[in-house]
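User
Take a look at the entry that follows and flag anything odd:
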Amino acid sequence: MAIRLGNSCLNCDNLIEGDYCKVHEINVSERHTCDSFEMKAVLKDNPDCTTCSRYEGPTCAHPQKASPGMMCSHWAPQRAQA
């Protein structure tokens, strides 16, 4: 099975602050997608502890070792800020 990015609203360039679709003028979530979907042109290409949603949080698998430049198998991308 291939792994690919989903065509959900969270990966769409039309999503703005507050999970709001600027095309359809409604709030959306990761469950939504549409025919006006436009993939964000740039994805984060610097995965490490500082871009992990678990970094310095209670679900970090290695809180004593986690630091900038490091990465583990529990890495989870942070949600992009609009």
About this structure: Residues 44-82 form one domain. The mean pLDDT is 84. The two ends are 31 Å apart (CA to CA).
